[in-house]
Amino acid sequence: MKHKTVANAIADKLRQDILSGIHEAGAQLRQDALATAFGASRIPVREALIQLEAEGLIQMIPHKGAVVTSLSRAEINDVFDLRKLLEARLFEDSIQKLTESDFAALDEIQKKFGIAIRDADLTQWGKLNTELHTTLYGRAELPQTAAVVAALLQKSDRYTRVQLSSNAARKRAEKEHANLIEAAKLKKIKPACDLLVKHIETVRADLLALLAKNK
């Protein structure tokens, strides 16, 4: 249990460092150096790396060890195709059941997102984006779909932070989130789901454009 707790703490810190760009794509994460840095044995470090590999943030390469993965066109398309299908399904099932407390929570998240944009607080953008989407789908009674979407949102957190690297993208995301909340409040199921699909497609298009630009 102790090893598991330490491994989770190490995984959380490394995940944050990868998502925030401290460990860039292609960076090698050496187990012995990490063990020294965290003041831990190599066992929880290895467990943390296995967890991050399962999330797609690193890849274990023979004779090289753990390497931070790069953005992938194929993975972007795979993840965002699934997000369009499954998030729309959750949103459709959730909208009619959202409560006043849910909308109060959404408004608070939206307010925090605006503050994070103004403060250029990179660490909050992906977190708040995930919270907003999760809250919008929170009343759906589709536990298997919700579990898959939770994994997809965690995997795309890194992509979201990259996509939100431009001020224009951040402002557009803030506006699109506001539109999604308003459509949900009005219980306009089809227009709301259409807005969601368009929102996800916009993020995908931005990411593919960035990928092409950086080649």
From TrEMBL:
InterPro entries: GntR_C (IPR011711), TF_FadR/GntR_C (IPR008920), Tscrpt_reg_HTH_GntR (IPR000524), WH-like_DNA-bd_sf (IPR036388), WH_DNA-bd_sf (IPR036390)
Example GO molecular function: DNA-binding transcription factor activity
Domain of life from the UniProt record: Bacteria
PROSITE patterns, sorted: HTH_GNTR
SUPFAM superfamilies per UniProt: GntR ligand-binding domain-like, Winged helix' DNA-binding domain
Domain annotation HTH gntR-type: ranges: 4-71
Pfam families linked: FCD, GntR
Keyword terms: DNA-binding, Transcription, Transcription regulation
Name by which UniProt lists this protein: GntR family transcriptional regulator
UniProt source species: Zwartia hollandica
Taxonomy of the source species: Bacteria, Pseudomonadati, Pseudomonadota, Betaproteobacteria, Burkholderiales
